Amino acid sequence: MNYLKLKRFSHHLQVSFSRLNMICRSWYKLYAPDSLKHRRNTDHTKISDSSILAMLIWQAELGIESQRRFCKFFAGLSHSRFNRRSRQLLPLIYLIRHVLNQEVDLSGKILIIDSFPVPVCQPVRNYRVKIFHDMADIGYKATKKVYYYGFKVHAIVSDDGYLLDYAVTKASVHDAKETTELMANAHPVNHYLLGDEGYLGKDLAFKLNQMGYKLWTPYRKNMQGAKEHNDHQLMAIRRTIESDFSLLSYYNAENNRARSLTGFQERLEAAVLAYNMAYCLERFN
C-alpha cells in the first residue's frame, strides 16, 4: 500500500502562464490545421489562438467555472468573443489530446474504468429544465444518493492517473453498456482492466475477452466466494480513479456551465487536456 502512495502524483498544473503560453504556441504551430491558421481576419486579432488555448487551460487550472468571471481578469477581453474563439479551437484541443495519447507510454500499466456524473442544473429543476433536450436525461448519482439531469462521462484511466479516453452519454446509460464501445475506440495495448461492481456480469466479461481484454471487478459481499475473490490490493488500485475524478472535478469537468453542445464539448476537452498536461509535466517536464 505504501508503494501505491509513493507512486501517486498530485496532477496539479503547477506552471507559470508564460510557460503555458509557450507550450501552447508550439502545439499550435505543430498541430493546428491550415483552415484554422489561415481563416478570415486571423491576422487582425489582438490575442492569438495559442494564447486563447493557454487561457482555457489556465481557467481549468484556476478552477473558475464561469468564463464571464474569468474574462474580467484580462483587460479588454470580451466574454462573447473569447467564448466564440474558444469554441473554434475544439478540433485542435481534440487533436492535441490524441497526440499526447501516442506520446505517453502506458505499457505495463493497469487500466481502470469508471464514470462520473455531469449535472447541468440543480436537482430541483430536473423535470422542467429545457437545455440539451433529447441529448440529456435523468440519472442517479450513487455517491450523494440523488437524481440529476445531465450527462455521464465514462473514462479509461491508467493506474497512475493518465486519462486515456472517455465517452459522453445520457445520465441514465448504465456503465457496462458503454464499456465495449469505449475500449474499441481507445484500443489500448494494456489488456488488464479494473472496474467496480457496476461492471459485474458474464456478458460484459465475455465481450471484453473476445476483444482481448480481461476485466476484473470485485464481488458484492453477499456473493459466493467474495472473500477469496476480492483482492484488497486490486481494490485499492481501482479506488485510485476516485482521486483522479476529484481532480477532474476541480478542473470543472463535472461543473460544466455551457449551454450549447459545442461549448459543453470544448470545456470538457479543455479540462481533460489540462489534467493530462499536468500528468506529462510532472513526469517528463
UniProtKB/TrEMBL annotation:
Pfam families attached to this UniProt entry: DDE_Tnp_1_3
Name by which UniProt lists this protein: Transposase
Transposase DDE domain boundaries: 109-246
Organism superkingdom: Bacteria
